[in-house]
Design goal:
Layout lengths: L3 H14 L13 E5 L2 E4 L4 E4 L12 H11 L11 H11 L8 E5 L2 H16 L3 E5 L8 H4 L7 H5 L3 E4 L16 H18 L4 E6 L15 H11 L3 E5 L24 E4 L10 E5 L1 H10 L10 H16 L2 H22 L3 E6 L4 E5 L10 H13 L2 E2 L1 E3 L5 E4 L7 H16 L2
The protein binds pyridoxal-5'-phosphate.
Length: 429
């Protein structure tokens, strides 16, 4: 919508938030209401949300809203008092992980969770070096900004962070056969570990999203992550899985992204979908790490784990289970993936389609030989989709990978609307 009201709101926003506060789409959306997979703008136009993973069980899910309101009108304090909600929630959440990941620290944002994971890894090892991927984003605190190789300036100069190449089967490494890719990429992890030790910084751990979501949801060479984590553990470092995007059943088959790769993290960080929009995040870790850290330095968080947040988190788990949303992600996810692959047959610009449950990446390329990024076309496409009432976005090192990640109650009918609209917009590129 490009109305006078919106232009005025944008101007006021620029004055008070600055001109660099990012907005989606060429014509920013002014959204006023949400329900399930739908969003409405100020003109009453309805949009199919194929992007917002935070509204995980659907926008304004009544059960979540009710749980929030009920607890907010009874008591809200913090974790320095005994309360059933935090214990019940932490028990229920940790039960969804391997037995070794038995303790939780509740915080408010993914950045905070990663910040705390870094502190724990550095405290545990007495060393500083952290390995990340070459197109990473893990949040915006000072230490976490150093991990943000995708666009954070601190990452370019940090001595205590090293980036390894994105383990991307589609693009691969020049001169390396597909069968040798896992070793080639894992060896770069070993190389970074050795370099940290030689430089006297020492190696503390590797922190990656197990689905490499911000990197473009790349297809990992089989066994890459297991091999890389093998190097990490052999060097005494910790493996931190950032499940802020990958977690809470997004991939359908598993609750957590790392379960796809048959690896066991020492620490897992959670966020975005955890509170369906209420600011909730967590560090899930081995008990010995949590206890040793606590002995070293007290950790307290004013808002994290408060009774209201825990009531919300519990309601999100209830809905995921009762509405069988992981099964839905498997079934509808397979339908969407099939539809995207059918579009790939008809639209040359689609180089690769990748999917994990209700998480999809569609890589747009100039040609199928060099696979050069079709960045400008990706920009045009997401704006055209928005005009036609379907919200998607794009990611990857060249911003040429369509990112589709709808709320979990996404239905087959929603999928048909997505695929039809995408087909139309691709044809008009
Ligand atoms: C993988 C990943 N980790 C961490 C974060 C940071 O989370 P938050 O914005 O809640 O601090 C993000 C946010 O986009 C993310 O994508």
């Amino acid at each position: 919508m490009d109305s006078m009201d919106n232009r005025e709101l944008l101007e006021r926003r620029h004055k008070v938030l600055g001109t660099h506060s990012p907005l989606f789409y060429e014509q920013p959306l002014h959204l006023v209401r949400g329900e399930g997979v739908w969003l409405w703008d100020a003109d009453g136009k309805r949009y199919l949300d194929v992007y917002n993973n935070v509204a995980h069980v659907g926008h304004c899910h009544p059960r979540v809203v009710e749980a929030l309101a009920a607890q907010a009108s009874t008591l809200n304090t913090h974790t320095r008092y005994l309360h059933e909600n935090i214990v019940n929630y932490a028990e229920r959440l940790t039960a969804k992980f391997d037995d070794s990941l038995s303790m939780a620290m509740l915080v408010c944002t993914g950045s905070e969770a990663n910040e705390q994971a870094l502190r724990m890894a550095r405290q545990h090892t007495g060393k500083q070096g952290i390995i990340v991927s070459a197109c990473a984003y893990h949040g915006n605190t000072e230490a976490v900004s150093e991990l943000g190789t995708a666009f954070m300036p601190e990452a370019a100069t940090s001595k205590r962070v090293k980036a390894v190449p994105v383990p991307d089967s589609y693009h691969g490494v020049a001169g390396v056969a597909q069968d040798d890719l896992a070793d080639a990429y894992a060896n770069s992890v070993k190389g970074a570990i050795d370099a940290f030790e030689e430089e006297g910084i020492g190696f503390a751990g590797m922190l990656v999203c197990p689905l490499f979501a911000n990197e473009g949801l790349v297809t990992l060479p089989p066994d890459y992550l297991r091999k890389a984590v093998g190097h990490v553990h052999a060097a005494g470092g910790l493996f931190i899985a950032d499940e802020v995007q990958a977690g809470f059943g997004r991939s359908g088959k598993h609750w957590w992204g790392h379960q796809f790769e048959n690896v066991l993290p020492d620490i897992v960080t959670l966020g975005k979908p955890m509170g369906n929009g209420h600011p909730m995040a967590a560090v899930i870790a081995r008990a010995d790490l949590v206890e040793a850290f606590g002995e070293w330095g007290m950790y307290f968080n004013t808002f994290g784990g408060n009774p209201v947040s825990c009531a919300v988190g519990m309601a999100v788990l209830d809905v995921l289970e009762q509405e069988q949303l992981l099964d839905n992600a498997v079934q509808v996810g397979a339908f969407v993936a099939g539809g995207l692959r059918a579009l790939q047959q008809r639209h040359d610009i689609i180089g690769d389609v990748r999917d994990k449950g209700l998480f999809f990446a569609v890589e747009l390329v100039e040609d199928h030989g060099r696979r050069a990024p079709a960045t400008a076309a990706a920009g045009r496409l997401i704006n055209a989709m928005c005009q036609r009432g379907v919200l998607i976005s794009r990611i990857g090192p060249h911003d040429n990978v369509l990112k589709l990640r709808p709320p979990m109650p996404f239905s087959k009918a929603n999928a048909e609307q997505l695929l039809d609209t995408l087909d139309t917009c691709l044809a008009q590129l």
